[in-house]
Design brief:
The protein has 250 residues and is of the alpha+beta class. Helix content is 45%, strand content 16%. It has a five-stranded antiparallel β-sheet with strand order 1-2-3-5-4, with helices on both faces. The protein has a three-stranded antiparallel β-sheet with strand order 6-8-9. The chain has a two-stranded antiparallel ribbon with strand order 7-10. Helix 4 (106-118) runs parallel beside helix 8 (212-225), helix 7 (194-207) packs antiparallel against helix 8 and helix 7 crosses helix 9 (230-248). The protein binds adenosine-5'-diphosphate and magnesium ion (MG). The site of magnesium ion has 4 residues, from loops.
């Protein structure tokens, strides 16, 4: 979800000098770490020069795993520039834009996208476990707070693929009316679904608190059917907030 001051910062950091472009590129999106252009029939994600290239490599690897699951068919291609990734172009708009223009079905689509991701086949899917990465970069104190919660909830519930950044800017609505496309899989991890619901809660609480009630209403029945109690959800929100706070320091 866009946060205003971050968007302003991103605009200032826009890298339009990329050597791949001949001047006909158009900006189609801004993310936290990159600007995205439409250019000669493809989308190009141009990361800020300060972004760690190891994370770009990791995002490409995640995308190829996700391609194999069938959850997203947008392929990533290498370019000669370490900071520029070429992608299949989705001819569409974000669900966020559609909602801003009055579309009322956004929360139902979000809930359906969670169900789709969480019901994907897990066998052989090489995505890291949340337990394996959640402690990176957090203080010892916070690590001791969050890891036991992940263990407790992982023992209580089944794990599945979690997108862990599923919000309205990461769901694209193709203009031809075909199925919504979930993008931006770098955060995906194997974990109980409660962490996916909690992550989105934390993002919305930060960027669009006025819609939190609608979000909770849209996913309540699905969370209940997974056996998620209020306490489980509150614990997962605490974990997600610690991880979110750490990300903001990047
Ligand atoms: N393959 C694509 N086709 C069309 N638009 C895209 C594509 N990938 C990203 N976008 C647009 O760019 C925005 C930012 O891309 P995203 O991959 O989510 O970056 P970030 O990781 O910085 O959030 C998206 O919200 C969307 O508007
Ligand atoms: Mg994104």
């Amino acid at each position: 979800m866009a946060c205003t001051n971050a968007s302003t910062q991103r605009l200032k950091n826009m890298n339009t000098d990329n050597r791949f472009f001949d001047g006909t590129q158009t900006v189609i999106g801004h993310g936290a770490q990159a600007d995205v252009y439409s250019y000669h029939g493809y989308a190009y994600k141009v990361y800020r020069p300060t972004y760690n290239p190891e994370w770009i490599k990791f995002e490409k690897a995640q995308q190829s795993v996700v391609n194999a699951t069938g959850l997203c068919n947008v392929r990533y291609y290498d370019t000669e520039d370490l900071y520029t990734v070429k992608m299949d172009l989705i001819d569409g708009e974000t669900l966020e834009k559609k909602m801003r223009e009055g579309f009322a079905g956004g929360f139902d689509i979000l809930a359906a996208m969670f169900r789709k991701v969480h019901s994907a086949e897990l066998d052989g899917v090489k995505i890291p476990g949340l337990i394996d990465t959640a402690g990176f970069g957090v203080s010892d104190e916070n690590r001791q707070k969050i890891l036991p919660v992940i263990v407790r909830l992982s023992e209580k519930m089944d794990s599945c693929i979690c997108h862990l950044d599923l919000h309205f800017l990461n769901i694209m609505m193709p203009f031809d009316g075909s199925e919504p496309v979930i993008i931006d899989w770098i955060n995906a991890r194997i974990a109980p679904a409660v962490f996916d619901y909690a992550r989105t809660y934390v993002i919305l609480r930060e960027c669009a608190p006025e819609v939190l009630g609608m979000y909770e209403a849209a996913v309540a029945a699905d969370m209940r059917s997974l056996g998620i109690t209020d306490e489980d959800f509150a614990d997962a929100v605490m974990v997600s907030q610690v991880i979110r706070d750490r990300e903001k320091k990047d």
